[in-house]
Specification:
5% strand, Arc Repressor Mutant, subunit A, 6 helices, mainly alpha, two-stranded antiparallel sheet, 147 residues
Length: 147
Amino acid sequence: MLSQKTRYAIRAMQHLADRYGQGPVHLQEISDKQNIPAKFLTVILSELSRLGIVESQRGKDGGYWLALSPIDISYGDLIRVMRGSLALVPCASRFAHEKCKNCLEEGDCRTRALMLEVRDRTAELLDGFRLSDPISPVPAFAADEQD
């Protein structure tokens, strides 16, 4: 599951992507429109700023904006910087690999093999979506199921 922090970061970044090229966006606007607590949002945007993904300016006319074009930011990259990995288990992580406690040897573990495949397919999917991509609030397949 994605942490609340990661979900908030995605929503904040989507908001900034929607306002890309329009100048600084006030923190309170993002907080209000995306229903994110302002104090938590400040922490998230500061972290994204340190990573060079968001820029900020203080003062009355200040705010936040994307440091990169929305087309250059994938959802996979955003989740990785917030969560550390796309893997569901530590032994399947590409960059934060850890051997699982109380498990089989990695070469004998079918669960690990499955989770490696899940990680790779998840990465392929999330790396294919960019902040610039239009995303409908209700996926087409979900709308079809409701009919």
